[in-house]
Amino acid sequence: MFKTADGEEIFVIDGHIALWDGSPENQLNIHGAQFINCFYDYHKNLSPAENLWPKDKFEKYDADTLVNDLFVKGYVDMAIFQPVFLTDFYKNGFGDIEKNAELAKKYPGRFIGNGTFDPRDGERGLEYLEYLAVNHGVKGVKLYTAEWRGSSKGYKLTDPWAQRYLEKCEQLGIVNIHVHKGPTITPLNRDAFDVADIDDAASSFPGLNFIVEHCGLPRLEDFCWIATQESNVYAGLAVAIPFIHTRPRYFAEIISELLYWVGEDRILFGSDYALWEPKWLIEKFMAFELPEDIQQETGANLTLSVKRKILGENAARLYGIDIEAQKAKIRSDKVAIRG
């Protein structure tokens, strides 16, 4: 929980976290090394010097480190796992839904464990999606449209099989579709992360929420023109928000455009842990003010009320979380006691 100088409590839901294994022991080929090395470059180039991790820790960290960074020192009250498998790059997968579920069970009320799907898995994947809904109660999925699968270097949400998976999500009550759109990671294909296919998917499935992680950067304008038309499209701030440190005016331009086009009710905070730790991101965001000329041009205003929505209230609404009930539930749990 973040508290302002006036003692006001800000409930924080980190909408984008992961527990990954990118270690050399788990790398299947050179692409596994390329992927985690590119991640580390993002980490090095956008983090404050005092928050840099050594490479071996970044490649593989343990659950206790994650819990401490998020809930004990990071102001986070709840966090949403966004798993990515990358089975063509890693022997045992980059992320692990079952390990995420174990952690959620160990710390009740702290985690939301999302699933994932890949339409190239066909009927077998549909069965797995049903398994995730029935056995893990998932309410959301993370999609990585540029993931390699054999000779395929990605898919689009407009593909017939992707449409079948989205239909299945509706049937199973998996209503929150988080899609990585925008920043590429070596060796993945930039065009396979293009935001363009969100438009048709959002129109075809109005009962689903499409949270576009990284808000399509660097194609922010494309994203904004889509999101302003589609009321079920949301902006995830992961990767965008670290620029608040290295390029504060660039971040001001991003957040003001989002507020202008998409609005304060459809923007979600995400640290993208462990790329970046939430503590410094939240502290800088709470202290951040838009430059006057940008305010005048866009009419955007980053008030305390707006920040409260972005940091937790918008995600709570999507996942059906009663914030006051949740605060009471976790106020004296074993993580709160450690803090």
TrEMBL record:
InterPro entries recorded: Amidohydro-rel, Metal_Hydrolase
Ranges of residues in domain Amidohydrolase-related: 14-321
UniProt keyword Transferase present: no
GO molecular function: hydrolase activity
Keywords: Hydrolase
Superkingdom of origin: Bacteria
Key word Metal-binding present: no
Protein's name in the database: Amidohydrolase
